[in-house]
């Protein structure tokens, strides 16, 4: 794959990672467990991408984090809050609409009946 193709592929993936991460935070997850869940669905995410994304989602008040210090190794758990859940549902609906429209474009079908 050429550098341009790699760049475009990375750009395409970057736009979908937020939605992928939000989809998995309906139940509390710590970073490693989240990365594992995503990877089991075929989505790989580097730690250097995941943790800044989680911090950004927390700053945007979509995600709440808490520390679990009951284990020998403390873990920070992230979960959608009410605002995050509402936002995730809106993004999911937009994704479904956009992906259906894009599918039609990629198939070469024109759903605009004026043409």
TrEMBL record:
It holds the Pfam family PadR. Residues 19-89 form the Transcription regulator PadR N-terminal domain. It comes from the Bacteria. Gene3D superfamilies: Winged helix-like DNA-binding domain superfamily/Winged helix DNA-binding domain. InterPro entries: Metal_resp_DNA-bind_regulator, Tscrpt_reg_PadR_N, WH-like_DNA-bd_sf, WH_DNA-bd_sf. This is PadR family transcriptional regulator. It comes from Paenisporosarcina antarctica. The lineage of its organism: Bacteria, Bacillati, Bacillota, Bacilli, Bacillales.
């Amino acid at each position: 794959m050429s550098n341009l193709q790699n760049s475009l592929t990375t750009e395409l993936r970057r736009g979908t990672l937020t939605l992928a991460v939000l989809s998995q935070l309906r139940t509390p997850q710590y970073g490693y467990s989240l990365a594992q869940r995503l990877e089991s669905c075929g989505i790989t995410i580097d730690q250097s991408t995941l943790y800044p994304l989680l911090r950004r989602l927390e700053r945007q008040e979509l995600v709440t984090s808490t520390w679990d210090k009951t284990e020998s190794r403390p873990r920070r758990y992230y979960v959608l809050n009410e605002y995050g859940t509402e936002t995730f549902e809106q993004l999911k609906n937009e994704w479904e609409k956009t992906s259906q429209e894009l599918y039609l474009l990629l198939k070469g079908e024109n759903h605009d009946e004026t043409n």
